[in-house]
């Protein structure tokens, strides 16, 4: 697979979902009106006119929309090179749907896996049978993707107080049982939704979660390093973390850093409106660094912590980075990346 940087459009058709995940950032948005097919087609067309070549559907559970395959297929015909969807995976357990979705032109499917066992996953998603359906969905898609070039199957895992100690087991499960080496581990976002509502129950401290996250990141490190050059879409990384707890995974395995290289621009289009430069906005609006970060060598790359997190826990966990080799690693990574284009 050729490496290149993409211009990405992330589109949210709506927030309807067939799960009730307790940590969901969009927990309070479920009843918002869905965008119409015509509106979405117009937005997809504009994305192509703006030069976007990577499209990601995010929601809600977009795949349960009646027009989902139509939208994917239309995007494909418009010329989007890659089309990704993040999904709880349940609808992909139906072989007919999985076949239609793959044939419509999806190239990257990211399944939510929040535990290594049915019991915990179903508790977190609040739907009995969800785990088994997601696994059946992965199996169906892997079988279908065998005959389609340049496709990836990945997972994402929301990290909360209820599952962070399970992370090494979750990593082993994804690698060994699912046979996937493409995964993202997402530190809880307390800005709004489920984690904001149930902060005490769900929000872990980074100093508590980091040792388990690190153990999990090490598990996939070798697979990931081997894959970097041939496929930049693949991942085995943490998201939304302060870099001081993950210096040995910088920059390869930190999504917030890596996506600034993989994507030369990211636009978000949601039912509430557009964020024309999403990466800049997240950095400037949602998270922050503090006075403790003064003199940290990773300050420029780091997005710090969520505002709400700092309000509740303060910044005493942050520890400025002084080791110059971490920045040299980033320069090498970018050189490797550019030399492959
Ligand atoms: S000390 Fe601050 S700037 Fe440095 S890595 Fe930690 S959070 Fe980021």
Task: Describe the structure using short key phrases.
single chain; 9-stranded mixed sheet; 16% strand; 341 residues; alpha/beta; binds iron/sulfur cluster; TIM Barrel
Q: Which CATH first-tier class would you pick?
A: Alpha Beta
- CATH topology grouping: TIM Barrel
- Bound small molecules, deduplicated: iron/sulfur cluster
Number of helices: 13
Side by side, the strands of the main sheet go: 7-6-5-4-3-2-1-8-9
Number of domains: 1
| Strands, total number | 11
Residue-averaged pLDDT, rounded? 92
Coarse structural class: alpha/beta
Strand content: 15-25%
Distance N to C terminus:
11 Å
Shape: globular
Whole-angstrom Rg: 19 Å
Largest sheet: 9 strands, mixed
Tell me about this structure.
It is a single chain. The protein is α/β, with parallel strands linked by helices and 341 residues long. It has a single domain (6-339), classed as Aldolase class I (TIM Barrel, Alpha-Beta Barrel). The chain is 41% helix and 16% strand. The protein contains 13 helices and eleven strands. The strands form two sheets. It has a nine-stranded mixed beta sheet, sandwiched between helices. It has a two-stranded antiparallel ribbon with strand order 10-11. Helix 6 links the parallel strand 5 and strand 6 (183-187). The radius of gyration is 19 Å and the shape is globular. The chain starts with 5 loop residues before the first strand and ends with a helix. The relative contact order is 0.12. The mean pLDDT is 92. Bound molecules: iron/sulfur cluster. Residues 242-244, 289, 293, 296, 298-299, 302, 304, 318-321 line the site of iron/sulfur cluster (SF4). Iron/sulfur cluster (SF4) binds next to loops.
